[in-house]
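Posting for a labmate who doesn't have an account.
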Amino acid sequence: MDKPEAKSARWRRQAGAALRRLRDRIEAFRSYVAARDPVWLAVRRPGRPEIIAAAITVVLVGGFLLFLALFDWNWVRGPIGRAASASTGREVALKGDLDVRLFSWTPSATVRNLSISGPDWASQRNTADIERLDVAVRLRRLFLGQVEVSSLTMTRPQAHLIVDEQGRRSWDLKPNRPDDGRGARLPVIQRLVIHEGRLTLDEQRRGMTLDAVVSAREARSPDDDESGFVLDGKGTMNGEPLTLRVTGGPFINIRRDRPYAFTADLAGAGSRLRAAGAITRPFDLGRFNARLDLQGRDLADLYLLTGITTPNTPPYRLSGGLTRDGARFRFADFSGRVGSSDLSGTVEVNKVGGRRRVDAELASRTLDIDDLAAVLGARPRVTAGGTVATSGAPGKLLPDAPLRTERLRTMDGSVSYRAASVKANAFDVRQVRLGADLKEGILKLDPVSFAFNRGELHGTARIDATKDMPYSAIDFRLSGYPLESIIPARNGAPTVTGRALGRAKLEGPGASIHDLAARSKGSISLVVPQGRMRSAFAELLGINVGAGLRKLLSGDQSESPIRCAVADFKVADGVATARTLVIDTDVVLAQGSGTIDLGAETLNLKLDGETKKPRLLRVWAPITITGPLASPALGVDAAAVATQGGVVGALTALVSPIAALLGFVDPGLADDADCGNLIANAR
């Protein structure tokens, strides 16, 4: 026998010996019990005491079971109601008959006229009233510590839900417990039937009311399309109609490992939400996934339906996948249109530290700048040719839509947005990039970036919305913006060329951009380090009528260098006062003064030009720039012209007509401006 076979035989002998020893020990224990254990002996050969004890036990158990079978459960309605009241903090009343059936693998109970009162602040109406409630549970599951409802039937149940101005909910039995936002988790209900149910909602903070009928039943036939769960209601939202319809499949043979399909359609406040999906685990309302379609006139209206703060927008239509995992909602990979722009991205809503938090990553392939203006506070106006954004006031440039500070205080979050391209627009914007961070009522915008065909505008803003009147601070810098995009060409040729640099640093209170500008303080500056100007217009800066008109009428296209141009304003109480206003060319040095009223959006500026070269026909009068920012008017100071005319008339009368020409002659003694110092001070 080789070694492996020897080892195997030895192992079998050892195992057999161990089994024999175990069998011998078991036999010895059985013999001991049969011969000496008193309990065993009493069972096999019971005496008189054992027989009496067994009889008493049988009688007691039988009597108890008979008592339960004949017991009138109405006797304990009061104690049950008082115990439930103490547990919930509400008055729970069982006003009708109570019938309990215990002797079954599915014990059941019937309760008639059950009511649950509202909290102290809403005690005028019960939270729930049920005419009849039939419920049965699985006994075997109870032995395992699980509650599984085999059937639940409610006849004419009514639920009255109230949310007051402070956000208290009448159905919250533990109002002091923090709301984690995870949703309700109900026991499994294998069969649910609701007859003539009704649900009312009075949400006082949002001005929402709803009156809905609720039903749930099994299919009466294979073609019965009205079976299953249905909630169908109508109401109002801020005085406008509101409708809600929720449907689901029949509640029969429901299992936790099988998704439960549902649809929901909510319309009101100018918005409509449609969802079709499934609850991942039935009766765990904190987990589901669905396809969500949104459309409406303004995304800001969604706050009334969802409690999520969104900016004002033109009409929108968006579709994407919505998932919920506890307190976390995710609207992912959505796409659609907002106004005339496309929009896609992902939005996530969660609860962090007891506060709602919204984080969004958004992008547009092509942006219509009017749609972005609406987001920044301009008011969208839908026309036949598309959406147009206006400030809201005729002839005004700055948006005047108010910021809803109370909404900003309800949540935290962040937003990033990028537009890869921008439709043709008056400012020649080509790309846009925005970032925002909101925390405890403080909104920080960084960056706010606009890339033009040439040049860019980059800045930051901070809005303190912790009080009803927000206080804002902005700091924007303009670099490399072409002057020809500001001042239009004439006869196909640019009037001026060059690159502009600028900065606006303002702060102040205001509910809108317009209000902020009207109350702001700070500074505004615009600098052109160098450039070129049509010679005809350069001459006219100094009212050099002879040279300017001759070149203008002859179509002269020659240019004069711009040594520098500086406009530096100090802003106080919404009025910008010129500290420096200089345009220095090789032929004229123009210096100015005046104000810009940011609240009224009007200009009142004067430019007084001095020639650097002798000129024969020179009108000694400043150029005026007045009127609204949207359409300023250029003119000449009439009073100065009249004064010069009076001087010329006096020379004609007192000396001679030739001497009168001296009134129009300028020897051209102006010096060049100190451009380096002016630019340094303006920046």
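Reply:
Got it, the structure tokens are right above this. Residues 543-554, 614-620, 640-669 have pLDDT under 50 and may be disordered.
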